[in-house]
Write a structure and sequence with these properties.
The chain is mainly alpha-helical. It folds into 2 domains: about 1-120; about 135-190. About 75% of the residues lie in helices and about 0% in strands. Helix 2 crosses helix 4 (about 75-95). Mean pLDDT is about 80; it is low at about 95-110.
Length: about 190
């Protein structure tokens, strides 16, 4: 069997979308060194680079799940921009004054990347709050988010329609309170 050393854009998207091990191994072995070098030159460790690369891969994975994604850059450039921005956020949090190495211009995709990072961070924050809810609240909100009517939710959970509506309101309030009490909430929404 011939070892593939290059992937087309579509092959990479398809491989990442399907969590293909060979494709992911290729991405890691060929793209991680670039991230490791950048973070190493900017006050980071190899462990930092691994963490940032994993977070970047999650953003990239979310991005390739979109069926109608219009790419304004290569996947490699996109991943680098995501990791670069995530690392700069870490440095800001650490309040370091390190000078970031000169980088090729990534201005065309900066706003796109920033939106993807913010979306990913907001999702993580919401998921964290959701996981702290009780089982009954999770069931009610899952059914509601799936588009079930209050009548359908009531039937599935053996509630009256009025109680299902009240329970949904209570659970939404709990979720909002959990999310807004999280320390990272201020960071995301003070912009």
């Amino acid at each position: 069997m011939k070892k593939v050393t290059q992937y087309s854009h579509d092959e990479l998207v398809r491989g990442i979308r399907n969590s293909d091990r060979t494709t992911l191994a290729y991405v890691y072995s060929t793209w991680f060194p670039m991230i490791r070098d950048f973070i190493g030159k900017n006050a980071g460790t190899e462990e930092d680079a691994r963490d940032i690369f994993q977070e970047g891969m999650l953003v990239l994975f979310d991005k390739v799940q979109g069926s109608e994604v219009e790419w304004k850059s290569t996947l490699k450039t996109f991943l680098f921009a995501v990791c670069r921005n995530k690392w700069l956020m870490v440095l800001r949090k650490r309040k370091t004054q390190n000078t970031v190495a000169d980088l090729e211009s990534l201005s065309d995709i900066e706003s796109e990347v920033a939106e993807d990072i913010e979306k990913s961070e907001r999702y993580k924050l919401m998921r964290k709050g959701f996981d702290q809810l009780g089982t009954e609240c999770q069931q009610v909100l899952n059914l509601f988010f799936e588009g079930q009517s209050m009548k359908e939710i009531a039937e599935k959970l053996s509630f009256t329609p009025a109680y299902a509506k009240k329970k949904k309101f209570i659970c939404q309030k709990k979720l909002i309170d959990l999310v807004s009490a999280d320390p990272s909430f201020q960071e995301l929404y003070e912009k």
